[in-house]
Amino acid sequence: MNNLSVDHLLGIKYLEKSDIELIFKTADNFKKIISQPIKKVPSLRDITIANLFFENSTRTKLSFELAEKRLSADIINFSSVSSSIKKGETLLDTVNNILAMKVDIVVIRHPNPGASVFLSRNIDAKIINAGDGTHEHPTQALLDSYSIREKYGEVKGKKIVVIGDILHSRVALSNIFCLRKLGAEVRVCGPSSLMPKNLESLQVEHFSDLKEALEWCDVANVLRIQLERQDVNYFPSLREYAMVYGIDKNVLDGLKKDITIMHPGPINRGVELSSDVADSSHSIILDQVENGVAIRMAVLYLLAGKIKLN
To answer: Does 6 map to a domain?
Structure first.
């Protein structure tokens, strides 16, 4: 199959396994290109892309922008801080005004779950979800699984534990969907207070003990505590969280095997990961960042291929 089964990238749960494999195959080709001295290709020379970020972002926003520039697309960057949203304009009116400038693809990050789905049903452009509330973050999950594939040759059969604030994390949910579709074993680890109530429906088991989780896994994908999404205290203090669930060199040295450490960023150093772990040979965190550009190039390229040119 050379075409995606979907018209938008709204979430991993909407993708087929064949879609994920096609994105990975396409990313392989783009990764070769961006490793060359001339990193730019004219693939999206006639395509205009709007980046609409209604929440703060560094890595995701820069990664999408770089991917778009590598593909030679025209780019519009939108920030809600200086927009008419502050004057009471609706999301749909804002986007329709931008689309009047003949935009083909919209990359959107929004605090409300389902914002990208809403837009896909109401506007005539391809939508890429760059994170919607605590719902999904599909390109992060794709680049995470792609990085595991790069490290181990395949994702199928690998044991992945996602550690930390599962309750508030869109990265965790997208990762669970993606890894399971690719045949990995997935479990989660963290305080019970930070576990969603629907864990059973997601078909993942919960480790409450960090060492037990790390002894089980091949890969630990460590998430930060999302204090900005927490309206109550879910644990006594960050210091106590770090003592029980933080991973430092002593923790890794105490394991009976080597494991791989991942993190979607930003890292709260000294909380979920110590610097000597984040910067160690166990870590593929910077590989994730590099792979993010190739994955986002692949997604943009494949969705652009579904645009009907008049």
So the answer is: no
* More confident site: 90 or 44: 44
**Measured in whole angstroms, how far is the alpha carbon of residue 262 from the centre of its chain?**
12
Q: For the chain, what percent of residues have pLDDT higher than 70? A: 92
For residue 57, give every residue at least 6 positions away whose Cβ sits within 8 Å of its Cβ, in sequence order, or none.
109, 130, 131
**Residue-wise pLDDT tens digits, 222-234:** 998 865 444 545 5
Q: Phi-psi category of 225—alpha, beta or left, where left has phi over 0 and alpha has psi -120 to 50?
A: beta
pLDDT higher than threshold 60 for residue 86: no
Give the DSSP letter of residue 55. S
Which DSSP helix (H) or strand (E) runs through 142? helix 138-152
Asked whether residue 2 is assigned to any structural domain, the reply reads: no
Taken in order 292, 264, 114, 84, the sign of the CA dihedral is negative
Dump pLDDT digits (tens) for 125-165: 999 999 998 899 999 999 999 999 999 999 999 999 999 99
Instruction: Please write the tens of the pLDDT for every residue from 242-287.
Output: 999 999 999 999 999 999 999 999 999 999 999 999 999 999 999 9
The enclosing domain of 125 has a CATH number of 3.40.50.1370
Distances (CA, A) of 43 to 48, 68, 69, 105: 12, 10, 10, 14
Domain count for the chain: 2
Residue with tokens 């020379």: 45
Q: 280-303: b or e for each residue (b if 16 or more CB lie within 10 Å)?
A: eebbbbebbbbbbbbbbbbbbbbb
pLDDT exceeds 80 at position 80:
no
Looking at the structure, do residues 280 and 154 belong to the same domain, yes or no?
yes
Residue 84 DSSP class: G
DSSP per position, 232-299:
S-SSS-HHHHHHHH-B-HHHHHTSSS--EEE--S---BTTTB-HHHHTSTTB-HHHHHHHHHHHHHHH
Say yes or no: 142 and 215 in one domain: yes
